Amino acid sequence: MALAIPVIYGSVRTDRVGIRAARFVCEQLRTAGHASTLVDPAEFALPMLDRMYKEYEAGAAPEPLERLATLFREADAFVIVAGEYNHLPPPALVNLLDHFLNVYYWRPAGIVTYSRGSFGGVRSAVHLRDMLAELGMLTISTALAYPRVGASFEADGSPVEEQAPGLQKRFGRFAGELAWVAEALREKRAMGVPYT
Prior knowledge:
Elements: E1 7-9, H1 19-31, E2 38-39, H2 41-44, H3 63-73, E3 78-82, H4 91-98, E4 107-114, H5 122-134, E5 137-139, E6 144-146, H6 149-152, H7 164-190
């Protein structure tokens, strides 16, 4: 069953390499038959949070927020792709996520982390689980970590040839779990939710 799964990427740094992992995730989801859109904070250039989307009068939010709200409302699940900045998720990711709230309710999220070094950004995932739960998302138990991300993916997000089978196999388990939970929650949302 096709699902709408935005992939929210976290970095706006000039020389970012994690975008490669985000592109890989998007392409793998599309290959599996899902509608996947890469949400890049560098493209949306949101200001530091002053007012959440829900605090604007209907139709008065800035255009980038309206675009994101429409995409997020239609989502069945989310994938968050984050590096690790001082053991925390990147500030641009936190800022983007914080602009919204109720559009995330009752949807699952999968966490993908990366690093240039050997730890794969896993410490930021610990904080992301807490944050995503507070935003109303249910995180799946399987997470992906990509250490040495620059050596694993080409600039376009395709895996380096000798690593492709392993990367795709690990992603398949992650995506299968995310889709299973997303389908179950979509069915339950259609019957009503405790609150919005």
